[in-house]
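[audit] Reproducing an earlier prediction to check determinism. Same input, same settings, fresh worker. If the tokens differ from the archived copy the diff job will pick it up downstream; this log only records the rerun itself.
[audit] input (703 residues):
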Amino acid sequence: MEIQQKNNRFLITGKSAYGFEIPPDGGLPVHLYWGEPGIAVEDLPSAAEVQHKRSGTTENMRRSFLNEYPVFFGEQYAECALKLTFASGVRGAEFQFCGFSCEEDVLKLEFREKKENFTLSLLYRSLENGSLIGRQALLRNDTGHTVQVEQYGSAAWQLPERCCRLTQLCGHWAGEWQTERVSIPRCKTVLENRTGLSGPFHAPFFAVDDGNASERQGEVFFGTLLWSGDWSMTVEKDTFQHLSVTGGINPFDNALSLADGEEFLTPLFLGGYTRGGFGEMSRLLHRYQKRELLPEYWRERPRPFLYNTWDALVSNVNEDNVRELMKLAASVNTELFVIDDGWQENLGDWRPHHEKFPRGLAPLAEEAKKLNMLFGVWVELESFELKSELYSAHPEWAMSYPGREPFQRYRAGEDRTSVMLNLGYPEAAEFFYQSLHKLIRENHIDYLKIDNNCYFSSPGNPGIHTRVAHVQNLHRIFERLNKDFPHVLFENCAAGGCRADLAMSRYFARINRSDNQEALDVPRFHEGFTLFHAPFMAGGACHISNSMKLLNHRDMPLDTQAAAGLLGSFACGKALNRCTAEELEKIRSYTEIYRKIRHITVRGEFYRLRSADTPDGAVFLYLLPEKTEAVVFAFGNKLHYGEDAGSFRLQDMDDSKRYQITSLMHRDTQYHPQSGAALNRIGLTVDFKKDRDAEILYIKAEQ
């Protein structure tokens, strides 16, 4: 990061440039510029110039325009990042600039309230060679009294007036990651989640452009909040055409009481700029996730091929039937065997069921190792059953309002009544850290999948800032477990993709993209998921299975199921104990494909070449940085009139190289070698054999 500073103007430069100024009156910073690099701090306009006069505005109102961090006070009518109520009853704050520092690539601007001993620090980080900016706010109360913090956003992003289109991600269970693009009206558009998780109804992400950006080109400004709980982003175009996105932790039902001497650091709000369209936007975020967020051991390490017991056994697992299923799993080259729900005593009592597994899980872990497989289990950390020992001992740990019974959920298939755990209690968080640590250590666990099949309900426990503390303690549990067990693969799941944020990537190297892994829906999920998640993170339990037939009531070819799963971190959930010999052989062949291409899907750059919403179906490209190997996935889901599925051009192949092209799904199909220039400019046409078919092409440069 290079920081240019002159006369209280700051310019952060790298592959993009970001500038702001402390105004002459010494107040909060005013945004000056965000976009292409190549300018100097002297080139920036002044705060007075960007806050130019508009009819119908006062001088004080003009000074509120384009604030880097809007604080409620005076004639501040736009969305605020910060709103405070002091013990005196004053419900606004005036901050004065105190100075700045730059340490370890963090620029810190410090401000103090004029009459109260309350400080605000604005933090800026340059990431991914200056392509991304990370912003946070640090609040500290030294007033001698408790201060009520009603809004405490992480940042306000001020955007050019030419931006007129918003891209966001919305959805629901089994329908997550749906991309929606809309024109931005002159009003406030609020993106938010109030479930206590970061999804699924919206994902904490936005992108804006001038309406002309495509996958391959065009200016895009974008951002994502690294927070695993309630969040909100207000996209506001005011009547003067100023456009901003202000966001952070959702203030709804979430006021923060900051005691004297306490401080609070808001979550990281990541923003970025590119001229390379939505595709390059995604690749910037993928690189950041891989290089900076993921647990170090798993950053570029291929994920093992996973088999999950759910479809075969549901929760009716025991030592005998699991052992038999293990042998079948090993016969199809499974690398990681996972026991899903049913192995535990109860939800909340995370120890092996005394009747189903009288010898515990360690003997099964040993058996898996003999069969050359890793071993893992599922847990639903944030639910506990009314019949559990934990609930008997600590009913107060249930999320509930004072004097009211906790909200109960009944799951008929398992005859299970559970309530939601409040991890905001430090002692509850410590209990679960110790429980999971013991489970992993004593049973030689290599993989742990967390689930959460409930949203927040009645989060009113006294003395606990539930919506924030719950998330903070969840993160702390898995931060500690990652340090204790750096080689364990942790998977982030919450009823599928309900924890949709990048913050979970610090501790979880795999994410359940959705419980819906039906092979025609997956390419659509993958388009939205990969807007800001690296594609190889896409996990789940049942890529190959019929468990989701209940949604769309259609049969999918086994090849297409496999191709959809191979887009990410490959898994099988099919009931192997009910498979034919031919089906087992096909599944074995898919594991061979996975081993051949997964170094490309993990290390490679990702390109969305054609959308699933087009008549010819989705096409995706993974290309190694060295451009020596690539893999193309194509899905043919709407064939008509005997016509082919149309050609598509590849992107960023080395023009000077010549590439061999091999079909991995249809071995009898031959493709002629082509130059990188031809692949980029002319492209390929896939020969689909039937509707709902899929093709995987392995592309390798000739020596």
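[audit] rerun output stored. Observation attached for the diff report: The longest helix spans residues 581-603.
[audit] end
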